[in-house]
Design a protein that fits this description.
Beta-Lactamase, alpha+beta, six-stranded antiparallel sheet, 470 residues, five-stranded antiparallel sheet, Rossmann fold
Length: 470
């Protein structure tokens, strides 16, 4: 039995009824022909059956090809038919009473069987069909221009079914689309109709960039142009990738991308792309190759999915986890405040009052009197209790490092800053930060700290944008 492999470019073909219904029928079919140009026969047939199955709800498609002896039919494509039925029917004879497919090839005309159980053409194959859950079968012969039978196109249903208008149109189109000899003759016209392909890809909300075998962009769909603010002419100008992708990601992923392109297998990468507003967002880019008949990659299709929100949540969770692990390692012995004196009860009542406020709280007391325990109690009772609690002993940090520790720094901010590091304020964003021994901070750091508390914004070293704090 001949099993046709799916073509790498099949991701552009609709795979659900809703997808097929939103696309103009003529455009889909014309585009399909364009995609098929130069493709291997099994990929051509697989693409056709997938398109029709997506267009017609509940249908299973197969294509028989006439064997070399001219007397039997062999499967060219039967991707979704049950394996037991395929094994029982592969190589059946051409004849008037050999199912719908054998009869269609014999009579050279469409054969519609609404109920396999009661139709005499299916007497010999009825049991195999019924056990596979098939109940109705419609077949049409595939004819060359000179009238030679090349095979049959078959549609199966799992319930008794009579032909309708939509199925008739599918049959009529298939009779034209599978004129294999004629496909080569209309190549010139299909090239002129390339605009139809672009109209379909422009209707897809994901970003799509078609690239040559070496990864040089050739075409970008409208979603890509709308996001980047570029034109289709800008896409083919050298430096397209440098204009939209973050410099750090280009440097980090260039070698990985080149190696993946050389392997010729589907792959994924994550990087930031700049929009027309100048902001960068994270995208997951999936690369899928299109191969010619000799198996050589002739195109790469890169589709992008916006994952910026997911990445930001992952970064925040990672920062919180790092800080929490450090705090647990240092302070896991402090669990609760235990006491019953009137002075302690008064303090705890004040804790309850201030816990639900977002205002900065000043806790005064000598070293060792439990200021951090009070702060943890405030944190647990506040609306931020499920978020990070970051404690910083200001007296234990060298004065030369305190600014970087509190506010963070960007890559290259100073010698040895090889990567971006979030500050404690950024790690605690949305949670609580506890600054112990704040009076020991240098005056210039206290000024910067007061500015952060007043403006509720943090500015990392060498950063151009301020981070809003909540």
């Amino acid at each position: 039995m001949a099993n046709a492999k799916a073509s790498p470019n099949l991701q552009a073909v609709p795979t659900s009824p809703s997808s097929a219904q939103i696309l103009p029928g003529d455009a889909v079919l014309d585009t399909l022909k364009m995609v098929l140009l130069g493709a291997p026969l099994n990929e051509v047939l697989t693409t056709i059956t997938r398109l029709i199955e997506a267009h017609s709800e509940g249908v299973l498609c197969s294509i028989f090809l006439v064997d070399e002896d001219g007397l039997h039919l062999r499967y060219g494509v039967a991707e979704n038919l049950p394996q037991t039925y395929r094994a029982a029917t592969d190589g059946i004879c051409i004849g008037p009473n050999v199912g719908s497919c054998g009869a269609a090839a014999y009579l050279r005309q469409p054969v519609f069987v609404a109920d396999i159980v009661s139709d005499p053409k299916w007497v010999r194959l009825k049991d195999s069909a019924v056990s596979a859950g098939l109940r109705a079968a419609w077949s049409s012969p595939i004819l060359s221009q000179d009238g030679k039978v090349l095979g049959t196109f078959d549609m199966y249903y799992r319930e008794v079914r009579h032909p309708g208008t939509d199925e008739g149109r599918v049959k009529q189109w298939f009779a034209t689309a599978t004129d294999i000899e004629n496909l080569k003759q209309i190549e010139a016209k299909l090239r002129e109709d390339g605009r139809e392909f672009r109209r379909i890809t422009d209707a897809i909300p994901h970003t799509i960039v078609v690239q040559d075998p070496s990864g040089v962009p050739l075409y970008a769909n409208q979603a890509t142009l709308d996001y980047t603010g570029l034109t289709s002419e800008d896409v083919v100008v050298p430096g397209f990738r440098e204009r939209i992708f973050h410099p750090d990601d280009l440097e980090r992923l260039e070698g990985e991308r080149k190696a993946a392109l050389a392997r010729g297998l589907p792959f994924e990468i994550e990087h930031r792309a700049r929009g027309k507003d100048g902001r960068y967002r994270w995208f997951l880019i999936r690369y899928n190759p299109l191969r010619d008949e000799q198996g050589r990659v002739i195109r790469w299709y890169a589709t992008g999915t916006d994952i910026d929100d997911r990445k930001r949540n992952e970064d925040r969770t990672r920062n919180e986890n790092v800080a929490l692990r450090e705090q647990i390692d240092r302070d896991s012995m402090f669990e609760d405040i235990v006491g019953s004196s009137e002075a302690l009860r008064k303090v705890l009542r004040q804790v309850d009052k201030v816990a639900h406020s977002d205002s900065t709280v000043l806790i005064l007391g000598e070293t060792g009197t439990g200021k951090e325990l009070i702060e943890r109690a405030i944190h647990r009772r506040s609306n931020r209790g499920e978020r990070a609690f970051i404690g910083v002993n200001c007296a234990a940090i060298p004065s030369s490092l305190i600014a970087s520790e509190l506010f963070g720094h960007e890559k290259g901010a100073f010698t040895g800053a090889t990567q971006r590091r979030p500050g404690r304020f950024e790690s605690a964003n949305g949670g609580t930060i506890f600054l112990d021994e704040v009076g020991d901070l240098p005056p210039e750091i206290q000024i910067a700290l007061l500015r952060v508390l007043q403006n509720v914004r943090s500015n990392a070293s060498a950063a151009t944008d301020q981070l809003p704090l909540t």
